[in-house]
Amino acid sequence: EVDIAAEIGDGGAGMLKRIVTESVNGFLEPHRERRAQFEADLDYVKDVLHEGNRRMNEIANATLDEVREAMNMVY
Question: Does residue 28 share a domain with residue 57?
Answer without folding.
Answer: no
